[in-house]
Structures are given as structure tokens and as C-alpha cells.
């Protein structure tokens, strides 16, 4: 029994030593990768389709560089440290028209940008929630407060959904407000503005598409 206890203690000491050596050998970039992937796991593991396939894909620091942004936009958000920029498709809250936009994440706010204009600014301190479906689509809804500053929640389609949502909730420090699956598995609600709500429906089909159905709902296949 004593030998068994000693063996177990030595095994634990050896394992701790190996882990310490591994951690010391990690580059700063690799550490950031692992820290982000731990958050992604907590948010999406076992909850959203496509998560397992995303494990082997390293996150990029950003999808676009700061100098890819229009100088007018840089001027408008000067003084804020830009952390992440990615192309997105934004869906209008009323007619659901698809618009090409950029999502710019700074240290303190998220911006939806069209060329040289800032279409919407969401300060992380006011961010109410981040919702995705449990399927393999790239739709994310950023929920904002009901006030005069905001036109309503932001509906975006992101090519790198796990990366983008992880970056957003780490920067906003709001991991707890991420909901996967929405209000139920097949639908997700969002605020249009002035007290109105909309619903989007998620279904499974042979070909991915996003469209406005006959009832006026946004349907994501």
C-alpha cells in the first residue's frame, strides 16, 4: 500500500513537471490560441453543429488588418484599440435585405461598418446578449438595450462563427450572456426597435440559404 501511494505521488509530480515544461515552452501566440479555444469549448461544445470540425482550425488574430479599413472609419474610432475585424453579412431587421458589412471589435465597443460609415455602435457595457442557433449556420444576433441610441438587435452572418463569437465575448467579458439555440432549438427572437420583436426560423435542408418566407419571417436553412 505504501509503495502504491508513493508511486501515485511520483506520477503526479512527474505529470505536473511535464505540464509546467509544456506551458513554459508555449509561445505567447499559442497561449492566446489555447485560452480562446477553452472559451469556445465552454460556449459551444456539445451545443452547436460544426464545433468539432472547428477544433483543428486555428483562430486568426484578425481577418482584416486595420489599414484595410476606410480612413474615415479609423478617424471616427480613433483612440480605441482595434482588436479584430471580419467581413459579415448584415440582415436588415425589417425587410431582411442582406448587406455586406464589416464587424470591427475594439477594446470597448463593437461597430457595424459600411465602407466609410459606422452604421451601428454597441458598447460592450450595454451588450445584453449574443445568440446563435444550434445548427451549422453562421448566424449570430447581438442583443442591445431598448433605448434611443440603438435601432434594434444586430443580425449577422459570419463565415467564422466560432472565432467571431469567441473574440466578441472575450473582449466584452460577457461569456455568460451567450445563448446557443435561442429560445428553442428551431427559432430565435430579436428586437426590431420601438418595442417590436421579430422571429427567425432555423431548418435543416440540402442547401444552405437565408431568405424571407411567406409569413415574413427570416428563414435560415
Automatic annotation (TrEMBL):
<dbReference type="GO" id="GO:0016459">
    <property type="term" value="C:myosin complex"/>
</dbReference>
<feature type="domain" description="TH1">
    <location>
        <begin position="48"/>
        <end position="221"/>
    </location>
</feature>
<dbReference type="GO" id="GO:0003774">
    <property type="term" value="F:cytoskeletal motor activity"/>
</dbReference>
<dbReference type="InterPro" id="IPR010926">
    <property type="entry name" value="Myosin_TH1"/>
</dbReference>
<protein>
    <submittedName>
        <fullName>MYO1H protein</fullName>
    </submittedName>
</protein>
<dbReference type="Pfam" id="PF06017">
    <property type="entry name" value="Myosin_TH1"/>
</dbReference>
